[in-house]
């Protein structure tokens, strides 16, 4: 009898043949690494991307069954169009796409771009697709949800108008991802659904997210960090993949097991007190429904035989 010492990796992914997955922001970084691993294990994977041409170029290098569909999370009309075009079952939704530390800007619907893309776009997409989802939803958050300064949801000013700072907005959006997962799992369990909501974060992974930082100083520091400190995108995707295929409890949060959760093999990790607040989670859900016009799809009542 031998004792296993190696850490969990893509070779440990169970056979995914017959399963269908959607991965947002799938044409580069963590997204394409997630697609490659799932497709390589036998799943049919839909790359949900803002630019189909770039998506097709990325998909061309993937071994396995994939397709590309347009999805702009910064445009609720695009989110609705994507969801309305979906037919049949969907085993797995990976809410991976995101923007990070960008200069102040707005989505097509007028929301602050980071909150609107990272949270509201995925909130709407998940709820619109939920009637099709049969297994789980995995949302990619970040260790930035606990950045210094006690990140919180600014319910009185979600767009941070007049007080915008790139990192402040990013931290709020990543905290929102965790509160969304918490409340989604509560609602799923309450409705009797077997679908699970989980979250993951990659640690410090070198992706193109850092290149769009609103600060030239941070861009320079991240360029150095990406080269000498960060994991590559394949290692960074492991927590997402672990959350996507392992038998974990709903509302689980997965990240790297190394120092500071910056790198390492995937494992269950903790979250901040603010990210564990059920009252804030419900309040955020209500606000998100009001802003997007999308609500949780309660199961239809049973009819008499």
Q: What does this protein structure show overall?
A:
There is one protein chain. By secondary structure, the chain is α/β, with parallel strands linked by helices. The protein has 9 helices and 8 strands. α3 (76-84) packs parallel to α4 (113-129), α4 (113-129) packs parallel to α5 and α4 packs across α9. The chain starts with 19 loop residues before the first strand and ends in a 13-residue tail after the last helix.
State the distance separating the first and last CA atoms.
55 Å
Shape: globular
Task: Classify the secondary structure makeup into a structural class.
Answer: alpha/beta
Query: Strand order, biggest sheet?
Result: 3-2-1-4-5-6-7-8
Count helical runs: 9
| Mean pLDDT figure | 90
Percent strand equals 5-15%
**Which range best describes the helical content: under 10%, 10-25%, 25-40%, 40-55%, 55-70% or over 70%?**
25-40%
How many strands?
Answer: 8
The assembly state of the depicted protein chains is single chain
Low-confidence stretches: 222-228, 300-305
Rounded Rg? 18 Å
Instruction: Give the topology string: H per helix, E per strand.
Output: EHEHEHEHEHEHHHEEH
Query: How does the major sheet shape up?
Result: 8 strands, mixed
Draw up the topology in text.
Layout: E1 20-24, H1 29-40, E2 44-49, H2 52-59, E3 65-70, H3 76-84, E4 90-95, H4 113-129, E5 133-140, H5 166-190, E6 196-200, H6 216-228, H7 233-236, H8 238-245, E7 253-256, E8 266-268, H9 278-292
Parallel strand pairs: 1-2, 1-4, 2-3, 4-5, 5-6, 6-7
Antiparallel strand pairs: 7-8
């Amino acid at each position: 009898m031998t004792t296993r010492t190696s850490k969990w990796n893509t070779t440990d992914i169970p056979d995914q043949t017959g399963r269908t997955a959607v991965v947002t922001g799938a044409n580069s970084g963590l997204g394409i690494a997630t697609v490659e691993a799932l497709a390589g294990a036998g799943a049919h994977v839909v790359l949900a991307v803002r630019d189909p041409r770039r998506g097709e170029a990325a998909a061309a290098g993937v071994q396995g069954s994939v397709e590309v569909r347009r999805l702009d999370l910064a445009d609720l009309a695009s989110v609705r169009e994507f969801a309305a075009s979906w037919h049949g079952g969907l085993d797995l939704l990976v809410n991976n796409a995101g923007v990070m530390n960008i200069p102040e800007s707005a989505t097509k619907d007028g929301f602050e771009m980071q909150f609107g893309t990272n949270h509201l776009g995925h909130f709407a997409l998940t709820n619109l697709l939920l009637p099709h989802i049969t297994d789980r939803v995995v949302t990619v958050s970040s260790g930035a949800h606990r950045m210094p300064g006690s990140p919180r949801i600014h319910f009185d000013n979600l767009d941070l108008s007049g007080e915008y700072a790139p990192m402040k907005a990013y931290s709020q959006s990543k905290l929102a991802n965790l509160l969304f997962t918490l409340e989604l799992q509560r609602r799923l369990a309450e409705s009797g659904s077997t679908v699970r909501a989980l979250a993951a974060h990659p640690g410090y992974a070198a992706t193109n997210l850092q290149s769009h930082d609103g600060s030239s100083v941070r861009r320079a520091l991240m360029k150095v960090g990406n080269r000498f400190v960060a994991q590559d995108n394949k290692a960074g995707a492991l927590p997402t993949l672990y959350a996507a295929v392992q038998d974990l409890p709903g509302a689980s949060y997965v990240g790297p097991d190394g120092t500071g959760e910056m790198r390492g093999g995937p494992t269950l990790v903790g979250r901040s007190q603010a990210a564990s607040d059920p009252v804030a989670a419900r309040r955020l859900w209500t606000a998100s429904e009001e802003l997007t016009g999308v609500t949780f799809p309660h199961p239809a009542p049973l009819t008499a035989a």
